Request: fold
Amino acid sequence: IEQAANRANPKDSLIYLHAEPARIEAGDLVLAGGSDWNPGSGAGFYLRNEANTAWLCICSISEWAAYTPTVTSVTGAFTTVSGAGRYKQIGKTVHFSVSVTITTIGTAGTAVDVTLPVTAASPARFVFAGRENAVTGSMLVAFFTSTTNMRIQKYDSTFLGADGYLLVVSGSYE
Reply:
């Protein structure tokens, strides 16, 4: 029996691999360490595809990562606003949660634009839900305006913003 370090084999005990196996066959299952050898989505379980041309992430075990989105208003400008987000990418799927704290509204209006943690592959296919979580409790909707940006509005497509508002949106996209 070959050692797991030379060839991945589902019958062997899976150990963290820190380099791609020397010999690879379709159907091989590996547990990648994610830092010194990252087949695509960090630490996790990967399966070699049927054509033996790529590793497919079947279960990422990477942690959620923080990101700081850029927050702008479609019209006017905020006096004081901040954004905070977290995301986790598993294969081609990105799970995220973002919050926008409007301390002082200024002249901001129309809608709130927020940058995404990872560029979207198909922006027209996704719509997200959220909530104003500090003052009104109103439902929010968010949608992509580009592959790197989403727009947040009240559920009826009107502007939802004022001093002290906390906008929270989460979802998943490709």
Observations:
- The two ends are 39 Å apart (CA to CA).
- Residues 1-5 have pLDDT under 50 and may be disordered.
